[in-house]
Amino acid sequence: MHWRYDVTGVDTVTLHFGERIDLALVERIQQAAEALQGSLTDRLLDAVPSYTTLLLRYDLLQDDLASLMADVAATLNRLPAEPAPRSAADLIEVPVWYDLRVGPDLPRIARQAGLTVPQVIELHCSQPYHVFAIGFAPGFAYLGEVPAQLATPRLATPRAKVPAGTLGIADTQTALYPMMSPGGWNLIGRTPLTLFDPQRTPASFLNAGQQVRFRAIDAAEYRALGGRVDDLPWQSGGCDD
Asked: Could you read off the pLDDT of 50-99 as tens digits, one per residue?
């Protein structure tokens, strides 16, 4: 495994594993994160994987940079040439109500793709997605990649408010908004799941290295699972079947 590191803070270093986004690289970085957390234990306060890097925050009361990096190198050098395959337990099912009431950009994406709305939904649900990284907001998971027909540029003008649980597409990635926030992704549905809860361990429902499959549900199941429609900034009205 080829890597290098930069000192990026008083108690942080960033490991660089490559320059281009690649699924195999993302899996290697997740493998490295898990191995380092296992070998360094409480010496490592945090490990944050991204597309091409892994940020490590360590305990200055226990470590100096030289000893830390010596053990980091030893751990990474012991990793197998290929990451272990993920088990079925790593595949997380996320229920989504795909409907223009909660996903107002669904019709436009369908037109651009030359598909019907039901075909867009079927295609979006047809494959698992990898959690590449967490960023933008706590618990915001970047998932990829969507089928080529569904790839859609970000909105030219972001919305001021996107409700928690809303599912969107931007370029070749798809993501769920964990909390109400501004956003420029194309919105296609909404999950009733709580995606970020600081009282939960881990706080984020999704984490780097996991796989996600979306399951289409109807309005009745969305409502039964606790889904909301009373906080939609682009419309008012009830959740009807």
From this structure: 888 999 999 998 899 999 999 999 999 999 877 666 655 568 999 999 99
Peptide bond into 80 cis (omega under 30): no
Closest CA to 48 of 240, 210, 207: 207
Please name the residues in contact with 236: beta carbons below 8 A apart, sequence gap of 6 or more: none
CA–CA gap between residue 165 and residue 163 (Å, rounded): 6
Phi and psi angles of residue 162, each rounded to the nearest 5 degrees, phi first = -125, 120
Q: Bridge partners of 217?
A: 97
Domain ranges of the chain: 4-77, 88-224
| H helices present in 140-230, as ranges | 219-224
Q: Dihedrals φ, ψ of 90, to 5°?
A: -80, -10
Which DSSP helix (H) or strand (E) runs through 73? helix 65-77
Which ranges of the chain have pLDDT less than 50? 236-241
- How far apart, in Å, do the first and last CA atoms of the chain sit? 52
pLDDT of residue 238: 41
The architecture of the domain spanning 4-77 is 2-Layer Sandwich (3.30)
Q: What is the Cα–Cα distance from 5 to 41, expressed in whole angstroms?
A: 20
Class of the CATH domain delimited by 88-224: mainly beta
Residue 95 phi/psi, 5-degree rounding, is -75, 135
- Supply 219's token pair: 């309005």
